[in-house]
Specification:
Length: 146
């Protein structure tokens, strides 16, 4: 039985090799093109693929340029809008500061007048007291002399 198993494996191997040889022969006999033609076709397909890839790259480049220009336009527009709003805010703040400065100046002017009036009133009160003290002193001196 062992001898029979060995011969069946060898037979299978022989049939496999014979089948492979017959298949290779048939492939060579019925091949639609020669090696030179097949290489030419491969080169043509490769060239067409490269051309298609180049065209795709150009289309992508064009689209990227369009997207860039659109984005650039939007950025410029946003910048101009922001710049305008900043200028408006600056002008409004400057106007408010101007009004505030005028109000502070007016208040300071009124307080200056009030302080000047208070100083003048203090001077008048001092002079009045000094005059009264001078009269009292004279009366006292005159009273002592009499």
């Amino acid at each position: 039985m062992g001898h029979n198993d060995d011969s069946s494996a060898a037979e299978k191997l022989v049939f496999l090799l014979i089948g492979a040889g017959i298949g290779a022969t048939l492939a060579l006999l019925f091949a639609p093109k020669s090696g030179r033609e097949l290489r030419g076709d491969i080169a043509d397909y490769t060239k067409r693929g490269l051309d298609a890839a180049g065209e795709g790259a150009r289309a992508i480049g064009t689209r990227a340029g369009e997207v860039y220009e659109t984005g650039r336009g939007k950025v410029v527009e946003a910048y101009e809008t922001g710049r305008g709003k900043a200028a408006e805010a600056y002008d409004a703040a400057r106007e408010k500061i101007g009004h505030s400065a005028e109000a502070v100046s007016e208040i300071a002017g009124r307080q200056k007048e009030q302080i000047a009036a208070a100083i003048e009133a203090g001077k008048q009160a001092y002079l009045e007291e000094k005059r009264k003290a001078g009269e009292v002193g004279r009366a006292a001196i005159e009273g002592e002399e009499s």
